[in-house]
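Complex record, two chains
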Amino acid sequence: MIAGLYIHGQSALHRAAAGAKILAMVALGTGVFLIPDWPVVAFVLATVLLLYPVSGFGPRIMWAQIKPILWLLVIFFAVQLWLNDWQAGLLVITRIAAIVMFASLVTLTTKTSDLLASLERAMQPLRPIGVNPEKVSLAISMVLRFIPVISTVASEIRDAQRARGLDRSIIAMVVPLIIRTLKMADDVADAIDARSFD
Amino acid sequence: MIRIENVSVQFEQRRALSDIDLTLGEKRIGIVGANGSGKSTFVRLLNGLQTATSGRVLVDDFDAAKDGRKLRRHVGFVFQNPDNQIVFPVVEEDIAFGLKPLKLSKEEVNRRIDDVLARYDLQDFKTHPSHLLSGGQKQLLAISGVLVMEPRYIVLDEPTTLLDLRNRNRVQRAIAELDQTVITVSHDLDLIADYDRVLAFEDGRVVLDGTPADVLPKYREMMA
C-alpha cells in the first residue's frame, strides 16, 4: 500500500497553497545537500518531524512514512561508515530522511488534484515543445491510484499460486501479473475515453 | 431515441455484430446473451467506444462516427469492474475528473460532487481514498462519476457481477432511481426483470426482442 496519500485536515499546512508546498519541497531538497554539517541537517529533520503533530498526524502515521526506507538508511549508513566515518553516515541518512519526511508531509496535506493542478500550471510553458500537461498529470494520478490496485492483484495471484504449490516460482507470479496489468490498462483506457477525456 | 441502422462490427478474424437494425426508445432496456455473443460490443457502439464497420449509430442528434466526444458526454458508461474505472486516488477527485473537459467553476464542480455523493449516502467518503471503499461503494462511485456529467443515457455493462448480494441490491436500487434512460448488460436476469424491453444476443445477432415477460423465459430455455 502507498503510505503517503492525502489525509483530510484543517491545519495551516493543509490550507497552504499546493504550489508553495512544492516550492518548499524543492528548496528543502536542494538546501539539505548544500549543508555540510550533520547536526544542522538533523535540526532540519527535527523541524520537519515537528510539523507532523502540528498538522494533526501522530507517531503511527510518521512511522508509516519512514518505515519503507529504513533498510535503505541502514545500508547508506553502513556504506558511509565503511568508506568514511559515522558523521558522514549521519549526514547522508538525515538528508534522505528529511527529504522523504517532508515530501510525505506534502502529499499527506495536499489533495492529489491540487498537486496536479499546480504541476499542470508549471508545465504550461512546455506545451509548445509538445508536452501535454493534462496528460502528464493524469499519468501521475493514475500511478498513485493503481499502486494499491496492482498490489491487491499481486496478492491475489500469490495466494492462487500458493494454493497450487507454486509459491517459489517467479514465473508463476510475474506472468499472470503482467497479463492482468495489461488487460487492466486496456480497460482503464476505455474508461478514460468513456469519460470524455481526450 | 437511439437508432442502430444495419450495423455490423468485424474484428480481424471474427464478426462480432451482424446487420443490427433497431430503434430504442424505452426508458429501461436490458441486454442479455452468452459470453462472446456481441452484447458488450453492441453497447460500446452507443457511446463511441466501438466504431461500426458498416451501418450507422445515431443517438438523438449525434452520429457516433462523427460526434464521438460529444456522444461520450451524452451517453455515460459504467463498466463491470469499478477498480478499472476509478482513475483518481481520492473519491471527490475521481468524480471531478469527468467534469474537467466541461471547464465548470470550482463552486459548480463542488456542488455537483456534493449532490451526487449525498444521493448515494457517500458524503462521509468525499475525501476518502477510493481504493479503501467496499465493492458496492466503488460501483456507486463509478456510477457517480458518470452521473455528475449529467448524461441523457447511461449504459451499465454487467454492473453487479462482482458484487455480493447486499451491494448488488444497493446498486439495483440506485439504477432504479436513475432519471436517465438506462441500458443494462447483465447475466443477472432478476436485475432486468422489471425493465421495459429486453434484447437477447447470440452470435452477433438479436435473436429475442420484447418485454422481459416474453424474452426471459425463452432466453432461459435457450441457455439450458
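Note: Chain B touches chain A at residues 44, 47, 49, 69, 72-73, 76-77, 79, 81, 83-90, 92-93, 96-98, 100-101, 127, 129-131, 145-146, 149 (CB under 8 Å).
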